[in-house]
């Protein structure tokens, strides 16, 4: 029976393994970042080809700016796309480590579960699998390499998002004729000190109130 | 462990029967609403609202100062009053306490420049002043929950004269303990760029929290509905919890950038380098009694991040309370729902 048990556990681990692999491409948590509705654009880039669009490489309207600027943007896009793909590959490697690790843990521990096919046994096996998967996941996602890879991927994705918005703004700006940057920022030299002064005043009032309260005590 | 085809077919049928029953129960419970205690709006600034909970009938008011609860920005505060048998607020009311709750609201792009100073000294400070004026008293009891606890620590250190007693629940203090996964993930983020992209979508936070233990939080809890199939009341609780978990408001760009940089990346709170409105937050200034409650199995704010508080505050009356549950379990689990409010109420009553 021991041989049967091991075979059965191995098959189950295989099923769980397939399930876990199927989860791998599910949208990671940070991909829920999105552009605000008024600038809604195609969904967050998930493929290198989307990233090209993100930087305006495939849009039909020519990007404004000098030829040098366009070339620089294209080079930057290419570099970011390359790095983005490398990081995705690294994350996939991490994910495969989790899958393998979880499977090994499960096969080792499953033989101790009740030896009968009943509903309770099935749930017990499932719980065991979840436990193994969580342990394997934690062992990987706490590593410095995983943390750095994920963070860099998020940073690059954010850069692409900002770049996409900049390109969109440049395309649509002549139509909307909005205030220029200098026009928009003109009031700030006046507003910023007022804001700081207001905060300092608030802090002073609090301190003064505290002193007076101390005196009355 | 190997079974005959007949056994496996029976197993498969049983799973299907349970799945159908669970689906029916959830459908029946789908309209279950959250919130159970009566409250009235007493103060508002921008999208932030201060609620006062109405005293329960036939309850003798306790001889204690009013209680102000400061919840986190990242989730909605109605988890503290989810339903009659899972309500921290209701238990505090039943203990005769006067309870106020800050609802931070749902920020939109108009709020993207709101900073931590505005939240802590502006909104939280405004709420404190209102409670003090309304009750004609000089001090109140402050309960800070999770991120709201961190805000409460900052407020208390800057304005110690307004806080008689401080209760912190699952409140991160040392953000660089080795078991803090969110901190590790946040350490290398370019928050300036992320902040420039605008407010952080609430769905991102929901995803982040689920990703800390994805198999338990995104799969196992649903499979658990089949074993055993919940009754109507259990299904309603499940629906209310699910609704709350997926109800994260968007996070203001400026304040979130500051919070991640100052706390998660630079761990400024324990180094005394958080600066709000030109004033430094020094935890040594917290000299009032402190009750620090944490969850032993907390995967969001690990116990080590919470208990670090004892090393940094100036209070000589410091009490730690460990509850054997998880982060959210501290508000709603069976283990916590009797014990935690009773502990808070008795601790406050003993200190006036």
How much helical structure, as a percent, in the residues of chain A? Answer: over 70%
Please tell me the overall pLDDT of chain B. 93
User: How many DSSP H or I helices of chain B?
Assistant: 14
Report the count of strand segments of chain A. Answer: 0
| CATH A-level architecture of chain B | 3-Layer(aba) Sandwich
**Which fold does the CATH topology of chain B refer to?**
Rossmann fold
Give a short account of the largest sheet of chain B. 8 strands, mixed
Order of helices and strands of chain A: HHHHHHH
Intertermini distance of chain A: 83 Å
This entry's quaternary arrangement is heterodimer
Given as residue ranges, the uncertain stretches of chain A (5+ residues, pLDDT < 50) are 34-63
CATH class of chain B: Alpha Beta
Distance between the termini of chain B: 62 Å
Number of domains of chain B: 1
Please report the two chains with the greatest interface, counting residues with C-beta closer than 8 angstroms to the partner's C-beta. A-B, 54 and 49 residues
Strand neighbour order, sheet with most strands of chain B:
1-2-6-3-7-8-11-12
Helical percent range of chain B?
Answer: 40-55%
- Quote the beta fraction of chain A: under 5%
